[in-house]
Batch of 2 targets.
Target 1
Amino acid sequence: MTENNLINGQWVGSDSGATFEVHNPATGRVVGRVPDAGAAEARRAVDAAWNASSAWAGRPAIERAQMLQALSARLAEDREDLARLLTDEQGKPLAEARAEIDYARSFFEVSAQASALIRDETPSVPGKKIRVHRRPIGVAAAITPWNFPIAMLAKKMAPAMAVGCTQVLKPAEQTPLSAIALLERAVASGVPAGVVNLVTGDPAAIGAAWLEDSRVRKFSFTGSTEVGRILMRGAATNLPRLSLELGGHAPMIVFEDAAVDRAVEIAMAAKFRNGGQTCICPNRFLIHRSLHDDFVSKLANRSAALTSGHGHDPEVVLGPMIDDAAIEKVEAHVADAVEKGATVVTGGRRRRVEGFQDRFFEPTVLTGCTSHMRCWREETFGPVCPVRIFDDQAEALALANDSDFGLASYVVTNDEERIRRLGDELRTGIIGVNDPGPAVAGVPFGGVKHSGFGREGGRWGLEEYLELVTVSAIDLASR
Ligand code: NAP
């Protein structure tokens, strides 16, 4: 039996003893085995979180903050081991895996600091003494995806722990080992039994068990819009507060005043992280007509030169797609675009990397893209850059906003007036202006429209795990 689910401070297996294998997406080799748990184990995890909740909420905030800082320090100490494990099961290059550990740590640091700022408020109302109190919402459930397996969990654990919530967590089936490694560090940092609990296994059964349990008062999910909808429907009975961090389909607009070399630099940095398997990476490139040819030729040259392979090789910039379904989707999107009239400037096919699985895709630039193409309407989640020309700002903004998704967008311009108006004009939760990395721990991160709702990061992330209680008192002595 594999005993690496965490329930009430104990490392346990599934009730049946069943396990499932975790594979390295580059080599196909088995890198681990984890419990294949279901509803019964998920319910026991809630029991543990429920039983631990009063004591955890009652602890001084400073003590919880110190524990978060201890966990961050431990992650720093074990950074190299964690990064190697992350690369083994997820495939991203080691440099990106290290950056993910640092990003995860920043959530523990920022949440520890932000928790010191949570205070009651006393709005002034004539004849009454009002106190607006913030209390932890209670047991919080979280389900996370495979593309940033440590950071996505950290984004949910850090604010919940900081404000005094206990948690039940389920990582993605492709990447449970990184999640387990994070929880091991939490236990080693002194986080008490029951405060964080982790179950791996049947996603529908585990998710349903948590939605059906009225003790779970918060449900935070990061993943596809499709699963987000299932969870939202499931939440209708017990009405836990929801945060849904769902799919993205970011546009990048390069305006006529941009320097092409700088625009290409930004595109490369934002697009190819994690092989394009990033919810905020640009998926639609809108380029002003005057810059289009130069931009495309430079982007194609730079993209074609990216090296693919096993993430442990320091030369490698592009790892494998996570699984066969992922590479098949990328292939299908390119084929659909070509059939509908797009031109492949570079890439467009699988790339054979000697000695490894057939999971690598060539960095691809497509021109002449239109709204009818799947790559223009759906998230491709791969190293594909669909490009389209625009002539004026109104057209660019209309095309950028013509999507059901609204997570991130990118703009390359130096026009101050244009930048000032973007917050009202672009319908996304995050806007990077000349900035390929707008996601940092101290600021709100989240989407609009079908990209979901709720925010992670900074004090805004903590608010998601707090409920407001208004205490309205009339002073009898003064009557
Ligand atoms: P996914 O298929 O939705 O899976 C995400 C998580 O949901 C996994 O843990 C999965 O478990 C679980 N799950 C699947 N079916 C479920 C069900 N019926 N009930 C409860 N849980 C269920 O998404 P993914 O393919 O892993 O991740 C890629 C997607 O995540 C992309 O759309 C990407 O844009 C999005 N994403 C969004 C953000 C953001 O912040 N907005 C960040 C990162 C990724 P199993 O793995 O066991 O199936």
Note: The domain at 5-246+451-470 is CATH 3.40.605.10 (Aldehyde Dehydrogenase; Chain A, domain 1).
Target 2
Amino acid sequence: MRIDVISIFPEYFAPLDVSLMGKARAKGILDVRLHQLREWAHDVHKTVDDTPYGGGPGMVMKPEIWGAAIDDVIGEGSPRLVVPTPSGRPFTQAVALEYAAEPWLLFAPARYEGIDSRVMIEYGSRLRLDEVSIGDYVLAGGEAAVLVMIEAVARLLPGVLGNAVSAVDDSFAPGAMENLLEGPVFTKPPVWRGHEVPEVLLSGHHGKIARWRRDEALRRTLLKRPELIERGELSAADLKAIASFRADGDPVAD
Ligand code: ADE
């Protein structure tokens, strides 16, 4: 997959050299190209922003500079253009999966009060454009959001996670885990500071372990993210598990 990022802080993306993403790049699975937006600014100060029409605080990024940068980076091609903004649609695991199926993504993170909106109108008509938010809070710029999205997407690319590891059991993974949080995990020793590993995990009984994991995912989701649970998608065994948490007086939501 090719990923281009145009930013006034390309150095912000140094973490892409590390760990899973560093390896994916070394293996050629991920081809990340960073571009300094100021290279498309031609005045002495390499100015990329200006005061907002209509007044108000902060600065807005200039459309000509973004336009020239995007045109040069895409050439004749047509990547999916992703603009991070707190006013975008929510970035979820489903969106990460959608992006992982694309051959080419172009990220355009803004600083200041954002990019002149005509840039989104222009490229929204020429490319598939998404304005995306990584959560209901405001960052100082879109760069951290781009790092988050690249990591979520890159780990889904074939060959990035080790063979033994799979994304299908992740929280939110489509399928059985779609609306569930993953439950707790344990490793050796079996007793640590008096805390025991749940016995079923030591039993070697795969069916019982799978059921236990599912029950714990349900329990955790009901406790921490009750809005995720959609009854229609739960099996009879799931509903029975939920009823028994309630009967046991577990602090779960109705
Ligand atoms: N830029 C600033 N805040 C953001 C957010 N929450 N998501 C995406 N981009 C942003």
Note: Helices lie at 19-26, 63-74, 93-100, 118-126, 143-154, 206-224, 236-247.
